Amino acid sequence: SGWASSVDDSLPDTISRRFRYDVALVSALKDLEEDIMEGLRESGMEDSACTSGFNVTIKESCDGMGDVSEKHGGGPVVPEKAVRFSITIMTVSVLADDEEEEVTIFTEPKPNSELSCKPLCLMFVDESDHETVTALLGPIVAERNAMKESRLILSIGGLPRSFRFH
User: Fold this and answer.
1) How far is Cα 57 from Cα 164, in angstroms, rounded to an integer?
2) pTM for the complete prediction?
3) What is the superkingdom listed in this entry's lineage (predicted)?
4) Rounded to whole angstroms, what are the CA distances from 37 to 1, 25, 102?
5) Per-residue pLDDT tens for 139-159?
6) 39: closest CA among 161, 141, 133?
7) CA–CA distances in Å: residue 40 to residues 8, 72, 99, 111
8) How far, CA to CA in Å, does 41 sit from each of 34, 96, 106, 109?
9) For residue range 57-99, what is the model confidence (pLDDT) as tens digits?
10) 91 CB contacts (<8 Å, ≥6 apart)?
């Protein structure tokens, strides 16, 4: 299954699960496929003229989730606090092959909604433990920086399309 190759374990003595950055972006974009196609239609863009030049703006957030401990016993001892790192696709814009200006074809209507935030990493750690949080998020930052330097080619609406991330 693709699960093992898209999820990383982390530091010993720390309970954490995370998705690879590229896997999370693909999942988020595929979830928005209908919205992206609708945005192209509403903008009057020729579908086949929009296979390259998609730009995606991402918002990242890291939230302490407070007390998440289980009080009924059994199983391993789990720290009482958790931190969630997530991404939200804020906008998708495109530069049609024959155009000079970018057109925004998707804007997230509820950027702070649980429904629009895609979890990237869940850590059972106190958010005030900056050293551990930083160590756990280090690989995510490296993956994000790599994604900003590259393009992702993904099939949206039956055509391969090229995305850049900001």
Assistant:
1) 9
2) 0.80
3) Eukaryota
4) 29, 17, 16
5) 999 999 999 989 999 999 898
6) 161
7) 35, 51, 13, 21
8) 11, 13, 11, 18
9) 999 998 888 777 665 556 666 667 888 999 999 999 998 767 7
10) 56, 57, 104, 106, 107, 108
